[in-house]
Write a structure and sequence with these properties.
Blueprint: H1 3-27, E1 59-62, E2 68-74, E3 77-83, E4 88-95, E5 100-104, E6 107-114, H2 116-119, E7 129-134, E8 137-141
Antiparallel strand pairs: 1-2, 2-3, 3-4, 4-5, 5-6, 6-7, 7-8
Length: 142
């Protein structure tokens, strides 16, 4: 095998290992057993949208391993920016009575209030002030 081919093989092997490590990180984020919300009204974030007070939702919300949700407002629309383990994506959202809705990959998603237990993520269990997109995808503030 030539030195050039060997270098190419080593590069492919390194990428394969790196990709595999990223996949392993995702598997650690599997949801915990299903639970119900125990957030009290005093610890919950006020609702956003038609009636929601989404101004209190604006800003950065942290998730595990460097992930985050960043909400900003542009008129009556909301910019939903999500840093996942794989990418940084931006969506346009609208407020409803108790959530901010946006479309991701052709599916309507909803950001709503919860606590660390509601996120289903072991890294956030002790948090009280969280926004959740779906079980296993949540972001909190201390």
């Amino acid at each position: 095998m030539t030195l050039k081919k060997l270098g190419f093989c080593v590069a492919i092997l390194a990428l394969t290992v790196l990709f595999g490590a990223c996949q392993d990180r995702k598997s650690n984020a599997e949801p915990l057993a299903t639970g119900s919300s125990t957030a009290s009204p005093s610890t919950a974030i006020p609702a956003a949208g038609g009636n929601i007070s989404a101004e209190k939702w604006l800003g950065k919300w942290n998730g595990p391993e460097g992930t985050f949700l960043l909400l900003s407002q542009n008129g009556n629309r909301y910019m939903v920016k999500i840093q996942s383990l794989d990418s940084f994506d931006t969506y346009e959202g609208v407020a409803t009575a108790d959530a901010i809705q946006f479309t991701r990959n052709g599916k309507t998603e909803s950001i709503h209030v919860g606590n660390g237990e509601d996120t289903g993520m072991k890294w956030l269990l002790d948090k009280k002030n969280c926004l959740i997109i779906k079980y296993g995808e949540g972001f909190c503030r201390d």
